[in-house]
Write a structure and sequence with these properties.
Blueprint: H1 3-41, E1 48-53, H2 66-81, E2 85-90, E3 102-106, H3 113-122, E4 126-128, E5 141-143, E6 146-148, E7 155-163, E8 174-179, H4 182-203, E9 208-215, H5 217-220, E10 225-230, H6 232-236
Parallel strand pairs: 1-2, 1-3, 3-8
Antiparallel strand pairs: 4-5, 5-6, 7-8, 7-9, 9-10
Helix pairs in contact: 2-4
């Protein structure tokens, strides 16, 4: 074997080894990112998850708003990426507790009974005005002492929460997407899909409640979203009971 042939063979072998090492490194990195993603969402390989569907409060029929459908599709894709399975149920057909499987609950308390139960159990510091009558406080959020009113199509708010019922290793989280309008629910699911790695680094496997603001949805749809605040503590602290009215006494 001449020196030229030997150099060619060695070059080919070296290139093959480099390619194999690069592939192994990329595969290892991909698997590590996948495991972190599965841990954050509580979705190990072949696990079961629950997708709770709300209803469109604007119609008497059992219908789902198109923006909520888009939100459900984005969540389904995220679940599939984790290698998990999803079971879709309507908001009035869920008769089980939480913590045994990851749950994604979409829609505010005006359109989702399951959301009402979760908020009462885990977010006692949050109130949502579900009065259907027009007014400045329609759909407004009260979180602790702060109130957040919406300006439809201009400024709207949505709560994105990851909540756990215990500290057990096998306890699965509940994800809540509680928006003032359907388009804000989709905005929250898209925000979660885009930022789950950063949220996992910051919050780990713990609970969090984020208040997001959807800006100018009439022009930008669900794409322009700003983080207003981490409201975990205020949302999980019970609101003070209203003071009892004083009895007025007048002299005869």
């Amino acid at each position: 074997m001449t020196d030229d042939v030997r150099n060619i063979v060695l070059g080919v072998v070296a290139a093959g080894i480099s390619a194999a090492l690069g592939w192994l490194a990329r595969t290892s990195l991909w698997k590590r990112r996948l495991r972190r993603k599965q841990a954050f969402f509580g979705l190990p390989e072949n696990s079961e998850s629950l997708l709770v569907v709300n209803r469109d409060p604007a119609t008497a029929e059992l219908a789902v708003h198109r923006f909520d459908v888009f939100a459900l599709l984005e969540l389904s894709a995220l679940i599939k990426d984790c290698g998990a399975h999803v079971r879709m149920v309507t908001q009035d057909a869920v008769h089980q507790g939480f913590g045994e499987r990851t749950e994604f609950c979409v829609g505010g308390p005006g359109s989702n009974r399951r959301m009402v139960a979760h908020m009462a159990a885990m977010l006692p510091g949050v109130r949502v005005n579900v009065d259907p009558e027009p007014g400045p406080d329609r759909g407004a959020f009260q979180i602790g002492t702060e109130r957040y009113r919406m300006d439809p199509g201009v400024t709207e708010y949505v709560l994105l929460a990851r909540l756990t019922a215990g500290e057990g290793r096998d306890t699965r989280p509940v994800f809540l997407f509680c928006g003032q309008r359907a388009i804000t629910n989709q905005a929250a699911t898209r925000y979660l899909a885009r930022h789950h790695e950063r949220l996992a680094r910051k919050h780990g496997s713990g609970s969090f409640v984020l208040l997001l603001k959807v800006v100018n949805s009439q022009a930008y749809g669900p794409d322009v979203v700003e983080l207003v605040a981490d409201v975990t503590r205020a949302a999980q602290t019970p609101l003070p009971s209203p003071a009892a009215p004083r009895t007025s006494h007048r002299a005869p």
